[in-house]
Protein backbone atom coordinates (compact mmCIF):
# COMPACT_ATOMS: atom_id res chain seq x y z
CA UNK A 1 0.00 0.00 0.00
CA UNK A 2 1.01 3.62 -0.44
CA UNK A 3 1.37 5.96 2.53
CA UNK A 4 -1.28 8.70 2.58
CA UNK A 5 1.29 11.18 3.87
CA UNK A 6 4.58 10.69 1.98
CA UNK A 7 3.13 8.71 -0.93
CA UNK A 8 5.81 5.98 -0.75
CA UNK A 9 5.16 2.26 -0.94
CA UNK A 10 5.10 0.71 2.53
CA UNK A 11 4.03 -2.53 4.19
CA UNK A 12 0.30 -2.94 4.73
CA UNK A 13 0.92 -5.00 7.88
CA UNK A 14 2.68 -2.26 9.86
CA UNK A 15 0.68 0.46 11.60
CA UNK A 16 3.26 3.18 10.83
CA UNK A 17 4.84 4.07 7.48
CA UNK A 18 8.41 2.76 7.35
CA UNK A 19 9.54 5.96 5.63
CA UNK A 20 7.84 8.88 7.42
CA UNK A 21 6.26 7.07 10.41
CA UNK A 22 2.77 8.33 9.49
CA UNK A 23 -0.04 6.46 11.30
CA UNK A 24 -1.67 4.22 8.66
CA UNK A 25 -4.46 2.84 10.83
CA UNK A 26 -7.19 4.87 9.11
CA UNK A 27 -6.13 3.81 5.61
CA UNK A 28 -5.90 0.19 6.73
CA UNK A 29 -9.41 0.37 8.18
CA UNK A 30 -10.78 1.78 4.93
CA UNK A 31 -9.09 -0.96 2.91
CA UNK A 32 -10.52 -3.62 5.18
CA UNK A 33 -14.08 -2.29 5.16
CA UNK A 34 -16.58 -3.65 2.67
CA UNK A 35 -19.01 -1.37 0.84
CA UNK A 36 -21.89 -2.75 2.92
CA UNK A 37 -20.23 -1.57 6.10
CA UNK A 38 -19.67 2.02 5.00
CA UNK A 39 -21.26 4.66 7.21
CA UNK A 40 -23.31 7.42 5.71
CA UNK A 41 -21.84 10.91 5.99
CA UNK A 42 -23.83 13.23 8.24
CA UNK A 43 -22.93 16.81 9.16
CA UNK A 44 -22.13 17.45 12.82
CA UNK A 45 -24.51 19.78 14.58
CA UNK A 46 -23.50 23.35 15.43
CA UNK A 47 -23.50 22.39 19.13
CA UNK A 48 -21.23 19.40 18.48
CA UNK A 49 -18.79 21.60 16.55
CA UNK A 50 -18.87 24.20 19.31
CA UNK A 51 -18.09 21.57 21.95
CA UNK A 52 -15.23 20.24 19.82
CA UNK A 53 -13.88 23.80 19.54
CA UNK A 54 -13.83 24.14 23.32
CA UNK A 55 -12.09 20.81 23.81
CA UNK A 56 -9.51 21.68 21.15
CA UNK A 57 -8.93 25.08 22.70
CA UNK A 58 -7.96 23.21 25.85
CA UNK A 59 -5.72 20.84 23.89
CA UNK A 60 -3.93 23.67 22.10
CA UNK A 61 -3.59 25.70 25.31
CA UNK A 62 -2.07 22.68 27.09
CA UNK A 63 0.48 22.33 24.29
CA UNK A 64 1.54 25.91 25.06
CA UNK A 65 2.15 25.19 28.75
CA UNK A 66 -1.26 26.06 30.21
CA UNK A 67 -1.86 23.93 33.31
CA UNK A 68 -3.44 20.64 32.19
CA UNK A 69 -5.10 19.91 35.54
CA UNK A 70 -6.85 23.28 35.42
CA UNK A 71 -8.03 22.61 31.87
CA UNK A 72 -9.31 19.13 32.78
CA UNK A 73 -11.16 20.55 35.78
CA UNK A 74 -12.78 23.18 33.53
CA UNK A 75 -13.80 20.63 30.90
CA UNK A 76 -15.38 18.42 33.54
CA UNK A 77 -17.19 21.27 35.27
CA UNK A 78 -18.65 22.40 31.92
CA UNK A 79 -19.82 18.90 31.01
CA UNK A 80 -17.33 18.67 28.16
CA UNK A 81 -15.20 15.76 29.36
CA UNK A 82 -17.44 13.33 27.45
CA UNK A 83 -16.42 15.15 24.26
CA UNK A 84 -12.70 14.60 24.91
CA UNK A 85 -11.39 11.78 22.71
CA UNK A 86 -9.33 8.86 24.08
CA UNK A 87 -6.12 10.28 22.57
CA UNK A 88 -6.87 13.72 24.03
CA UNK A 89 -7.53 12.19 27.46
CA UNK A 90 -4.20 10.40 27.24
CA UNK A 91 -2.51 13.73 26.49
CA UNK A 92 -4.26 15.60 29.31
CA UNK A 93 -3.62 12.88 31.86
CA UNK A 94 -0.04 12.01 30.93
CA UNK A 95 2.45 12.50 33.74
CA UNK A 96 4.72 14.12 31.18
CA UNK A 97 3.46 14.40 27.58
CA UNK A 98 5.90 13.23 24.94
CA UNK A 99 7.38 15.65 22.43
CA UNK A 100 5.26 13.97 19.77
CA UNK A 101 2.07 14.52 21.81
CA UNK A 102 2.90 18.20 22.33
CA UNK A 103 3.61 18.81 18.64
CA UNK A 104 0.48 16.93 17.61
CA UNK A 105 -1.62 18.95 20.07
CA UNK A 106 -0.19 22.29 18.94
CA UNK A 107 -0.98 21.52 15.28
CA UNK A 108 -4.65 21.06 16.16
CA UNK A 109 -4.95 24.84 16.16
CA UNK A 110 -5.30 24.66 12.37
CA UNK A 111 -8.39 22.45 12.53
CA UNK A 112 -9.75 24.69 15.29
CA UNK A 113 -9.29 27.69 13.02
CA UNK A 114 -11.46 25.98 10.39
CA UNK A 115 -14.17 25.14 12.94
CA UNK A 116 -14.37 28.74 14.09
CA UNK A 117 -14.75 29.78 10.47
CA UNK A 118 -17.55 27.21 10.09
CA UNK A 119 -19.28 28.69 13.15
CA UNK A 120 -18.99 32.23 11.71
CA UNK A 121 -16.58 33.44 14.41
CA UNK A 122 -13.95 34.05 11.73
CA UNK A 123 -14.95 35.82 8.51
CA UNK A 124 -12.53 34.05 6.17
CA UNK A 125 -9.56 31.71 6.14
CA UNK A 126 -6.95 30.87 3.55
CA UNK A 127 -7.18 27.18 2.82
CA UNK A 128 -3.58 26.08 3.30
CA UNK A 129 -1.44 28.89 4.63
CA UNK A 130 -0.89 31.34 7.48
CA UNK A 131 -0.70 29.42 10.74
CA UNK A 132 -3.45 30.43 13.14
CA UNK A 133 -2.54 32.60 16.11
CA UNK A 134 -3.34 30.68 19.34
CA UNK A 135 -3.81 33.77 21.59
CA UNK A 136 -6.28 35.26 19.10
CA UNK A 137 -8.18 32.01 18.89
CA UNK A 138 -8.44 31.81 22.66
CA UNK A 139 -9.94 35.29 22.69
CA UNK A 140 -12.77 34.01 20.49
CA UNK A 141 -13.61 31.23 22.94
CA UNK A 142 -14.72 31.23 26.60
CA UNK A 143 -11.54 29.45 27.67
CA UNK A 144 -11.77 28.45 31.37
CA UNK A 145 -15.11 30.27 31.62
CA UNK A 146 -18.78 29.46 31.21
CA UNK A 147 -19.44 27.77 27.87
CA UNK A 148 -23.24 27.44 27.80
CA UNK A 149 -23.92 30.61 25.77
CA UNK A 150 -21.15 29.84 23.30
CA UNK A 151 -22.66 26.41 22.61
CA UNK A 152 -26.30 27.50 22.63
CA UNK A 153 -25.70 30.42 20.26
CA UNK A 154 -23.55 28.52 17.76
CA UNK A 155 -24.67 28.47 14.14
CA UNK A 156 -23.02 26.72 11.21
CA UNK A 157 -22.49 28.26 7.82
CA UNK A 158 -24.64 26.92 5.00
CA UNK A 159 -23.94 23.47 3.61
CA UNK A 160 -23.08 25.13 0.29
CA UNK A 161 -20.29 27.14 1.94
CA UNK A 162 -18.98 24.10 3.80
CA UNK A 163 -19.06 21.89 0.70
CA UNK A 164 -17.19 24.60 -1.20
CA UNK A 165 -14.54 24.77 1.54
CA UNK A 166 -14.29 20.98 1.53
CA UNK A 167 -13.58 20.95 -2.21
CA UNK A 168 -10.89 23.61 -1.85
CA UNK A 169 -9.25 21.78 1.05
CA UNK A 170 -9.37 18.44 -0.74
CA UNK A 171 -7.85 19.85 -3.94
CA UNK A 172 -5.12 21.66 -2.00
CA UNK A 173 -4.22 18.53 -0.03
CA UNK A 174 -4.25 16.43 -3.20
CA UNK A 175 -1.87 18.88 -4.90
CA UNK A 176 0.59 18.60 -1.98
CA UNK A 177 0.52 14.80 -2.03
CA UNK A 178 0.66 14.62 -5.81
CA UNK A 179 3.75 16.82 -5.84
CA UNK A 180 5.42 14.66 -3.19
CA UNK A 181 4.61 11.40 -4.98
CA UNK A 182 5.94 12.72 -8.29
CA UNK A 183 8.94 14.57 -6.81
CA UNK A 184 7.55 17.80 -8.22
CA UNK A 185 7.89 21.30 -6.73
CA UNK A 186 5.61 21.87 -3.77
CA UNK A 187 2.51 23.98 -4.46
CA UNK A 188 2.96 27.66 -3.67
CA UNK A 189 1.20 29.03 -0.58
CA UNK A 190 0.11 25.64 0.79
CA UNK A 191 1.71 24.50 4.03
CA UNK A 192 1.55 20.67 4.18
CA UNK A 193 0.95 20.67 7.93
CA UNK A 194 -1.77 23.29 7.74
CA UNK A 195 -3.67 21.59 4.94
CA UNK A 196 -3.47 18.21 6.70
CA UNK A 197 -5.20 19.67 9.78
CA UNK A 198 -7.77 21.58 7.72
CA UNK A 199 -8.59 18.36 5.84
CA UNK A 200 -8.86 16.45 9.12
CA UNK A 201 -11.19 19.08 10.52
CA UNK A 202 -13.49 19.42 7.51
CA UNK A 203 -13.83 15.64 7.22
CA UNK A 204 -14.91 15.37 10.84
CA UNK A 205 -17.32 18.29 10.50
CA UNK A 206 -18.97 16.67 7.48
CA UNK A 207 -19.13 13.30 9.24
CA UNK A 208 -16.91 11.59 6.70
CA UNK A 209 -17.60 7.83 6.89
CA UNK A 210 -19.07 8.37 10.37
CA UNK A 211 -15.56 8.44 11.85
CA UNK A 212 -14.95 9.56 15.44
CA UNK A 213 -12.42 12.31 16.15
CA UNK A 214 -9.40 10.07 16.72
CA UNK A 215 -10.20 8.01 13.62
CA UNK A 216 -10.68 10.67 10.94
CA UNK A 217 -8.95 9.85 7.65
CA UNK A 218 -7.68 12.39 5.13
CA UNK A 219 -7.40 10.22 2.03
CA UNK A 220 -7.13 11.93 -1.34
Helix count, per DSSP?
A: 10
Task: Compute the CA-based radius of gyration.
Answer: 17 Å
- Fraction of residues in H or I helices: 40-55%
Strand content: under 5%
Overall structural domain count: 2
The helix-and-strand class reads: mainly alpha
Shape: globular
Oligomer: single chain
Distance N to C terminus: 14 Å
Mean pLDDT: 88
Order of helices and strands: HHHHHHHHHH
Name the descriptors.
220 residues
Secondary structure layout plus pairing:
Layout: H1 25-32, H2 46-63, H3 68-77, H4 86-93, H5 99-107, H6 109-118, H7 134-139, H8 148-152, H9 159-181, H10 192-205
Helix pairs in contact: 2-3, 2-5, 2-6, 6-10, 9-10
Describe the protein in words.
The protein contains ten helices and no strands. The radius of gyration is 17 Å and the shape is globular. The protein has helices at 25-32, 46-63, 68-77, 86-93, 99-107, 109-118, 134-139, 148-152, 159-181, 192-205.
Provide a concise account of the structure shown.
By secondary structure, the chain is mostly helical. 50% of the residues lie in helices and 0% in strands.
Amino acid sequence: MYCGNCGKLTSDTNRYCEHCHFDLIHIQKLLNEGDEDESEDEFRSAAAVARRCLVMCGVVAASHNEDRLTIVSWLKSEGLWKDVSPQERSFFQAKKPTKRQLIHASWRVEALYLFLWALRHIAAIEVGKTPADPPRLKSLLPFLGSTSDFIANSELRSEVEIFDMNEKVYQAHWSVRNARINSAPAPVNIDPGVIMERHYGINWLMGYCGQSWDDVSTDT
